[in-house]
Amino acid sequence: MMYVWFIVGVALTLLGASWLVDGASGIAKRYKVSEFVIGVCIVGIGTSMPEFTVSLLGSLRGSAEIAIGNVTGSNMFNTLVILGITAMINPILFTRDNLRRDMHLNTLASVILLLFAYLPIAIRPAESPVISRLEGGLFLLLFAGYLYMTFRNGNKSEEADSEGGKAKPLWLLILMVIAGIAALAVGGKLFVDKGCEIARALKVSETVIAVTFMAGGTSLPELVTCIVAAAKKRNQLALGNILGSNVSNILLILGCSSLVRPLIVDTAQFDGFIILILVAILLYLSALLPKRNELSRYKGFIFILLYAAYIFFVVLA
Questions:
Q1: Residues 27, 31, 35, CA angle at the centre, nearest 5°?
Q2: What ranges in 61-169 are assigned the alpha helix state H?
Q3: Could you tell me where the DSSP H helices lie in 210-268?
């Protein structure tokens, strides 16, 4: 029976991703905003709900390691694996706004996380690093500013409609987005839970399960959504999904989690914060190297190899 539920989970995630991509693209065209903006503000936040749930529950239970580790792990997976796979399916072209603003903000969010966690101990060395409620409130204010800036600059200037035909009514587009997010949530949970059961039944080690199903579980909605978006040649939607999810994970999710309970930062997580910043910088540099303004297939393959090397290092350590 677990195999049946596993297949149902896969089907729901694929169907949900298709609904979400089509609904979000339709809303973008209807209101003449870029698909990237819709990817950031609707798709990116919607597909980050699994991370939100895990981190918030971790905070409520007093487990800051889960709340913070879930976010850092998810952001690394989003950038290296999901964008890597997306680029291998269909190379991602970066717009002028992506290079001038969006990827800088993605990097800035990671830098702010590092500063907010460790700045207090630079001022008062006797204290442990912590993301306080005050800093959580500042995270949420910065997130509101990020959304405002994204919408303000979201006029559709660099994209043209490529599809004809009668536009779907707004109520149907909204319903597709809501149903898509719901199907992704339910299908993703079935995929992870039943996938773990099947792996254990096949005598797969707990370590392998942890770095595959469990590590990628909360990022499954982003993964499937980006794959479907790439197949539909909606790569700006896919890029907006990932960058929006990355910023949401830090500013929105950790902001809410630290408001519930201040998050004590383990000094061992310092390396994770540094890696997050390096990965964000790597994404930006990938747009400046040949082929310029493009995340090509070979660059995507390198991203995946880098993540595999990171996991190999973590497992051995």
A1: 55
A2: 64-76, 83-89, 96-97, 103-123, 133-152
A3: 215-217, 220-231, 235-247, 254-260
Burial class (CB in 10 A: 0-12, 13-18, 19+), 164: exposed
Helix/strand/coil for 95: coil
Q: Which residues neighbour 251 within 8 Å (Cβ) at sequence distance 6 or greater?
A: 109, 112, 139, 140, 142, 143, 146
Give the amino acid at 297: R
Question: Which tokens belong to 105?
Answer: 């903000």
Rounded CA-CA distance 93/113 in Å is: 28
| Model pLDDT for residues 205-228, shown as the tens digit of each residue | 655 555 556 556 777 788 888 988
CA angle 90, 94, 96 (to 5 degrees): 160
- Per the CB < 8 A criterion, the answer to whether 60 and 264 are in contact is no
247, 108 in Cβ contact below 8 A?
A: no
Q: For the chain, first and last CA: distance in Å?
A: 37
Q: What are phi and psi of 294, to 5 degrees?
A: -150, 135
pTM value is 0.82
Element (H or E) spanning 299, and its range? helix 297-316
Tokens matching residue 129: 């690093």
For residue 8, give the nearest of 188, 180, 201 by alpha carbon.
Answer: 188
- Domains of the chain, each with CATH number or no CATH: 40-156+202-316 (1.20.1420.30)
d(CA 77, CA 285): 18
Task: Express the helix, strand and coil content of the chain in percent, nearest 5 each.
Answer: 80, 5, 20
Rounded CA-CA distance 117/97 in Å is: 29
pLDDT of residue 110: 94
For residues 245 and 48, what is the distance between their CA atoms, to the nearest angstrom?
A: 6
Low-confidence ranges of the chain (pLDDT < 70): 120-127, 154-166, 204-216, 315-317
